[in-house]
Specification:
By secondary structure, the protein is α/β, with parallel strands linked by helices. It folds into 2 domains: 131 residues, Alpha-Beta Complex (Aspartate Aminotransferase, domain 1), CATH 3.90.1150.10; 236 residues, Aspartate Aminotransferase, domain 2, CATH 3.40.640.10. The protein is built from 12 helices and 13 strands. Helix 3 runs parallel beside helix 9, helix 10 runs parallel beside helix 12 and helix 11 runs antiparallel to helix 12.
């Protein structure tokens, strides 16, 4: 029995090329940045026993306070993906309808497929800038809809769903499927570029009890190795099911991870500010790279985050050249994310622009530009 379909995206954690343009987050936070005397004292006094299934109460409070929700609404998970999987398992029976905005992060789709949900894709297109059209969502909603799942900013595009659009979605759901839940993965929400404003959370929507958000420390804070994510759930029954699901699969999080996560959030402003500066520099470098190679590629500029979508121009790359492009990436020591992993066409690839230090990113872009030119000349 195979409940999880294979997907090439697993290469992003298995392969380590010189030019990693597949990474989906900013520079790694270093453990040494957190290990001051206070943190070391906490670690020394930490009992390595079981923690709470819902998560450490101090950590939950640190997550809840900036969002204006109660600590009791927060459930700590091993990354946001555990939250998404447990929510799929708790909310969906076999055959239940799930509206999923696509292209989407593969494990999100896999979670709904694994529990036997019937996925109704809401297709977002490169040509329309991956902007969600509420009028296209409307016919996908019905009394059978169990939940609507979207990400803002989206993965792979980095394009956000404007708050007014989220409000329209919530109003439409109240009309068409008033008992359905809206799940918003906002793991990139705080990864703004420089001084750009941070988008408000979907938790402020009027559909309060039926809005669930998931996030983690992986993307905005540069700490995917600290396996801490969370779901914010204000429906009591769903929250209880999420905690029970976690208990029956993992019992609790690592006590060490929870201490480090709390320390990261105590330094939230510094950590986020430093990464926002880097993100702004890297998105500017990416814009320059696309402009320089504008006869060969085009992109959708992201609203936030560390990723974007780039497309090989059809007039310079036929299908054979697209295939050759991916085949020759390995020889150039470059790792990219194939659009087909996310439900896009192969001509589109996800570009991770904040994983490498800026000088190395520019070297990677030089190597990628050379490869593009070599292949495009064959078919021009």
């Amino acid at each position: 029995m195979s409940r999880f379909a294979p997907n090439g995206i697993i290469a992003l954690v298995d392969e380590h090329p010189r030019f990693n343009l597949g990474g989906s987050y900013g520079p790694n936070l270093l453990l040494g940045e957190l290990l001051d005397a206070t943190t070391l004292a906490r670690l020394e006094k930490t009992a390595l026993g079981y923690g709470s299934a819902a998560g450490d109460v101090h950590l939950r409070a640190a997550i809840a306070e900036p969002l204006g929700v109660a600590a009791s609404d927060v459930v700590i998970t091993a990354g946001s993906l555990q939250a998404l999987f447990l929510l799929a398992f708790a909310l969906c029976d076999r055959g239940d309808e799930v509206v999923l905005a696509t292209p989407a992060f593969p494990p999100t789709r896999a979670a709904f497929e694994a529990v036997g949900a019937s996925i109704r894709p809401l297709h977002l297109s490169f040509d329309r800038g991956y902007r969600l059209d509420v009028h296209e969502l409307a016919p996908l909603l019905s009394a059978k809809t169990k939940l609507v799942s979207l990400a803002s900013p989206q993965n792979p595009s980095g394009v956000a769903v404007p708050y007014n659009t989220l409000r329209e979605i919530a109003a439409l759901m109240q009309q068409r499927c008033p008992r359905a839940f809206l799940i918003v993965d906002d793991v990139y929400r705080e990864a703004a570029f420089g001084d750009d404003p941070v988008a408000p959370s979907a938790l402020a929507l009027a559909l309060a009890s039926q809005v669930i958000t998931v996030a983690s420390l992986s993307k905005c804070h540069g700490a995917p190795g600290v396996r801490i994510g969370w779901a914010i759930v204000r429906d009591t029954h769903v929250r209880e099911q999420l905690v029970l699901g976690k208990f029956n699969t993992a019992i609790c999080n690592s006590a060490l991870d929870e201490i480090l996560a709390l320390r990261i959030l105590e330094q939230r402003e510094r950590v986020l500010r430093e990464r926002r500066i880097i993100l702004a520099q890297c998105v500017a470098a990416t814009q320059a790279f696309v402009h320089k190679n504008g006869e060969l590629i085009e992109w959708i500029r992201p609203d936030a985050g560390a990723i974007c979508c780039v497309r090989l121009r059809p007039d310079r790359f036929d299908d054979t050249a697209v295939e050759q492009f991916y085949q020759r990436l390995r020889d150039a020591d470059i790792l990219l994310s194939n659009g087909t992993w996310f439900g896009e066409e192969a001509r589109v690839f996800r570009l991770g622009f904040a994983h490498l230090p800026l000088p190395e990113l520019e070297q990677a872009y030089d190597a990628l530009g050379t490869l593009l030119t070599q292949i495009a000349h064959v078919t021009a």
